[in-house]
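Methods — Computational structure assignment.
A single polypeptide chain was analysed. Its primary sequence is given first, followed by the predicted tertiary structure written as structure tokens.
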Amino acid sequence: MERSYKLSRLAEELEAEIVYKSKDFEEVTILTGDVHRPGLQLAGFYEHFEPRRVQLIGRMEAAYMEKLTQEERSEKWDALLKYKSPALIMCHGAEAKEDLISVAKVHDVTILQKNVHTTDIMWDVIRIVKRAVAPSITMHGVLVEVYGIGLLLTGESGIGKSEAAIELLKRGHRLIADDAVEIKAIDKNVIEGTAPELIRHYVELRGIGVVDVSQIFGVGAIKAAQNIHLVVDIVPWEDGAVYDRLGLDEETTNILGVDVPIVTIPVKPGRNLAVILEVAAMNQRQKLMGYNSAMELTKQINNNFEFDTE
């Protein structure tokens, strides 16, 4: 199912002036987070033009149009707006003059205006819309931020995910979501998790019930969204089972087309899961910075072995 974002919400979030509001303004949807500056189109080149994108007119495009006669400007605005893009945004001092407004009324295309740098508007539109239209799923699990690393805790119900999250909160870390995690693919290599609005900031503890983390631990213990850097699958300890002891073989799991590192942590009475998760987060942070403890240890062992055999 193709996701979309209302143009009316974008105008509100940008705090942009509505110069001309199309008749279907409340129904117009934006299907892509990409934006376009139609400089080549104003010069007459429409090959590969993507009309579904929001169009931005900056100071450079406006200066070019000012050098034309009113009749020429009207013709070029007509050629652009007949494609019925979601909206045309005038930026960085570019003003929507009467020739543009007249054509916008003919084709019924919304004209917005905001006097900030075109690049700033561009990034704002990309940031707002891409998050809204990004592919998404809801997963069972707990999402916490530990030392800046997003840990997605998975495992069967009752394994201790929420209890581990509470212990992490006591140690100064932050909760994003408990029980259900809404995940979006923000970029080809980035997934972001949030909590469903209805259960945001709440944690369920068996035997106690539901607790409001923001009320008990303070607002510093919660976070609205977090990129997911590592999936931690928590499983019951099984005697005789073989578990990874070095960490040389890095496994990944695919979420919305993004390969995310995953580790499996077996739990049994006496294991301090919160401390293990802290170490997992710090270890993943080192890997992101280019240092791999397991590889370094293997290298040292190999070097020592070569030295002893000489």
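Note: The first strand starts at residue 5 and ends at 6.
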